[in-house]
Amino acid sequence: MNLIADMHCHTVASGHAYSTVQEIAREASNKGLEMVAITDHGPSMPGGPHCYHFGNLRALPSEIYGVKILKGVEANIIDYDGNIDLPERYLDILDIVLAGFHTFCYPNGTVEDNTKAMINTIKNPYVDIIVHPGNPEFPININKVVEAAKEYNVNIEINNSSFTVSRRGSEANCIRIAKKAALIEAPIVIGSDAHSAFYVGTFDKAVETVKKAGIKEEQVLNASRQRIIEFLENRKRMK
Ligand SMILES: [Zn+2]
Ligand SMILES: [Zn+2]
To answer: Fewer CB within 10 A of the end CB, N or C, for the chain?
Structure first.
């Protein structure tokens, strides 16, 4: 599976990541990626950027070292209604919006609470990708979440860092998510979730999981430049 874009990367603006946009773009270029999404954490993450950070992303070029830069956010789901921590006027000007549960940002609930929160976030028309839903810290009803993602055409992320440095114990859930997505042909995206430039475009564990589950390449958003462009255009937010 040839992935042409990394849809999930953090810069120093996230408060706990260690590279600049320029370093990420250079690494993406060196690894032969065509696009990279800059997706710093939303404002409710301790040490995260202010809303203004997202309002001013126009200060960045749309292409660096020949790599298309998608200006985005990894927003935090903040309640059981599925609200996220960036106002619509900012979401409206971004190329891509990721959202998910994070410690310190979301009042962890029961499986029912978390499933309701995640499905309500999926229903938010600004949200393109649900990140690391396999995190065992925030248990969900996997079948219901993947079915909702399919219904609303929101991409479910298989996050490479969930197999390596983050969210220990995610693997079994990620496999279940991938199998369910394969079964109903739900849209999938693979992200590195790099918190330093060295891991931009590192997808090996996630790709292995997706392949084992029987997910088709046509289901994977970032396996095709055209698919990404069409997806974003359909959502009328390719700027
Ligand atoms: Zn995250
Ligand atoms: Zn992230």
So the answer is: C
CA atoms within 13 A on the CB side of 167: 25
Distance, in Å, from the CA atom of 31 to the CA atom of 102, rounded to the nearest integer, reads 29
Within 8 A by CB and 6+ apart from 29, the residues are 64, 65, 66, 67
188-200 confidence digits (pLDDT tens): 999 999 999 999 9
CA of 161 to the centre of ligand 2 (A): 9
Three-state SS at 72:
strand
Domains by residue range for the chain, with CATH: 5-234 (3.20.20.140)
Tens digit of each residue's pLDDT (9 = 90 or more) over 59-96: 999 999 999 999 999 999 999 999 999 999 999 999 99
DSSP H or E run through 227: helix 225-234
> What is the Å distance from ligand 1's center to 42 Cα?
10
Task: With 0.70 as the threshold, say if the pTM is over it.
Answer: yes
186 backbone φψ class: left, alpha, beta (φ>0; ψ -120 to 50): beta
pLDDT band at 236 (very low <50, low <70, confident <90, very high): low
8 A C-beta contact, residue 79 and residue 103: no
